[in-house]
Design brief:
By secondary structure, the protein is mainly alpha-helical. The protein is built from 13 helices and two strands; from the N terminus they run H-H-H-H-H-H-H-H-H-H-E-E-H-H-H. The structure holds benzoyl coenzyme A.
Length: 328
């Protein structure tokens, strides 16, 4: 079971005891009325910190998420799949740009966010720390990881912080194309030759556990959900998103004749809730804290990209310096 290992960090964020109670009440009343909070509006320090944490992690997830699929562009089967995957990966990097901009409105400079990613201080989604051994792994991400992302982000796009919601609306519109592309890829594999079906089944077996982790720890162990739901940053809890994902996608996976690697997975007819084997939450903790199969590789690739792009940023910020600096 996930033991809330980040409670210390959550406590470090402080509470709202030091806030002006009148301003706090007015802020919460605005949220209750469904108004959007904008960058120059008054907000409690904790709301700001929580948003920066969550949006920044989300931005990092998009930029790192481009890597496991990106390596498949040259190996995607056929020209059309290559084109589509290239466009998808480009979109994901664009999502990171939108999200870094949204987080910047809260006062944290983009350079600091990138530094925190590269130093391992900031988290990003667990799921991108697993290897994509075959084309079927890339198909799994494009369909089911994007499906999970849409469940979470469509809910949160109705949330309280204007810049984040507007970024999420745009992201979801693009993700819905990725989802259709990914579904098409999986249908092709699942209805293809015995070898293709086997590849797809093996990918499902590899990714099911990380996919269950993707929505975050169970609500009872989640550190941040309570305050984020109260302030309408999260419009659905981790368990609600996981349940919605299972509701929407388990039937579609079964329809394709694929087996979900969980003998206990079933919908309880009385509660309407999906029952499942708890994924390994110890593995989740290790992966999100930097010790997954590909964490080191993912950050190493980003560090190289950062180094190689340094001269471009320098040229944009100080064009005169670029002419005098020899290219490495
Ligand atoms: N991975 O209190 P909790 C994409 C951390 S990109 C890693 O429940 P919260 C795509 C959590 O941060 C989409 N860490 O947290 C891209 C916290 O640690 P800290 C990614 C996780 O924030 C390219 C601790 O565990 N989506 O789809 O209330 C190609 C306790 O958790 C994860 C987003 O980023 C995780 N899965 O809820 C294809 C959506 N889960 O900060 C596709 C935005 C939890 O205390 N984020 N942790 O050290 C969210 O909605 C929420 O942050 C979460 C977690 C639901 C993920």
């Amino acid at each position: 079971m996930y033991g809330g290992g980040n409670t210390f960090e959550a406590q470090q964020m402080g509470g709202v005891e030091n806030e002006d109670p009148i301003k706090l009440a007015e802020f919460e009343a605005r949220i209750a009325r469904g108004e959007k909070i904008e960058p120059n509006d008054w907000m409690p320090a904790l709301y700001r910190k929580q948003l920066i944490r969550m949006i920044e992690q989300h931005a990092h997830s998009e930029i790192i998420g481009a890597l496991p699929e990106g390596t498949w562009i040259t190996r995607a089967p056929g020209f059309k799949r290559k084109l589509a995957l290239m466009a998808k990966v480009q979109d994901e990097v664009g999502h990171a740009q939108l999200l870094y901009s949204a987080a910047e409105t809260l006062g944290k400079p983009r350079e600091k966010m990138i530094d925190d990613l590269l130093s391992g201080k900031s988290k990003y989604s667990n799921i991108f720390n697993y290897p994509t051994f075959t084309w079927a792994d890339s198909c799994f991400i494009s369909w089911l990881v994007d499906a999970g992302a849409i469940v979470n982000q469509l809910a949160n796009s109705k949330g309280s912080y204007g810049p984040y919601c507007r970024a999420l609306e745009r992201i979801c519109a693009e993700e819905s194309f990725h989802l259709k592309y990914g579904h098409h890829c999986v249908i092709h594999m699942a209805t293809g030759t015995p070898r293709q079906r086997k590849m797809m089944q093996e990918a499902l077996n590899r990714w099911w556990g990380p996919m269950m982790h993707f929505f975050g720890p169970p609500d009872k162990a989640s550190v941040h959900t309570e305050i984020l739901v109260k302030w309408k940053v999260k419009m659905a809890t981790n368990d609600e998103c996981r349940q919605q994902f299972l509701d929407m996608y388990v039937p579609k996976i079964w329809e394709l004749g694929l087996n979900i690697p969980d003998p206990n997975l079933k919908k309880n007819p009385e509660t309407g809730e999906w029952e499942y084997t708890e994924p390994d939450w110890e593995e989740f903790k290790r992966v999100i804290n930097g010790d997954g199969p590909c964490n080191a590789e993912r950050l190493a690739v980003r560090r190289v990209a950062e180094e190689r792009g340094a001269w471009v940023r320098k040229a944009l910020l100080k064009p005169e310096a670029a002419y005098t600096t020899p290219l490495a």
